[in-house]
Amino acid sequence: ACSASCPTDAILMHNSTDEQILAQVRAATEMKSEFPLIVAFLCNWCSYTCADLAGVSRIQYPTNLRVIRVMCAGRVDPEFVLEAFKGGADGVLVAGCRLGECHYIFANYSAKKRMEVLQGVLEDIGIDPHRLKVEWISAAEGERFARSIESFVDELKEIGPIGSELLEGHNDG
Questions:
Q1: How far is residue 137's CA from residue 72's CA, in Å, rounded to a whole number?
Q2: pTM of this prediction?
Q3: pLDDT digits (tens, 9 = 90+) for 24-37
Q4: Which of 26, 36, 89, 150 is the most buried (most CB within 10 A)?
Q5: Is the dihedral of CA 7, 10, 14, 20 positive or negative?
Q6: Number of C-alpha atoms within 13 angstroms, CB side, residue 152?
């Protein structure tokens, strides 16, 4: 969790460097074949396992997700989210263990705070903050995970493709 907030990037995570994660983000947004495109940062212990459970349980949910597995939601640097939007993602999901149940003790609280600040930054730069969704979910909640994805897809369809709010703002001014 500290690596995501280190101002000097002094902490390097073996097999999970900023460059490696950013490369995954770029690959996830390289080809946009459906709307809305969602880049999802899923923690290894809960939300990634939950997505896997939904899959093996054959629980249906939209295929709009491009999953990037991180050890913890606390590892998600705001730079990763911004890179996803820059690449054309219509939405970004950051999902981790339920608050109070993080495998890294308080890391998801750090992620929560960081993503709340980022939502304000998104609004300041003209991106609807609702395009960033944060979920706290246990490994056993496959059905809830699927409903969450369905709901996010519906919200993003209402908002429109990424950039539409920038165009609307330009036309008004």
A1: 12
A2: 0.91
A3: 999 999 998 899 99
A4: 89
A5: positive
A6: 30
Question: Is 133's pLDDT higher than 70?
Answer: yes
Q: Per-domain residue ranges for the chain?
A: 2-172
How far apart CA 172 and CA 82 sit, in angstroms, is 25
Tokens of 118: 């980022």
Give the per-residue SS3 of the chain.
CHHHHCCCCCCCCCCCCHHHHHHHHHHHHHCCCCCCCEEEEEECCCHHHHHHHHHHCCCCCCCCEEEEEECCHHHCCHHHHHHHHHCCCCEEEEEECCCCCECCECHHHHHHHHHHHHHHHHHHCCCCHHHEEEEECCCCCHHHHHHHHHHHHHHHHHHCCCCHHHHHHHHHC
Distance separating alpha carbons of residues 76 and 26, to the nearest angstrom = 15
Question: What pLDDT score does 104 carry?
Answer: 81
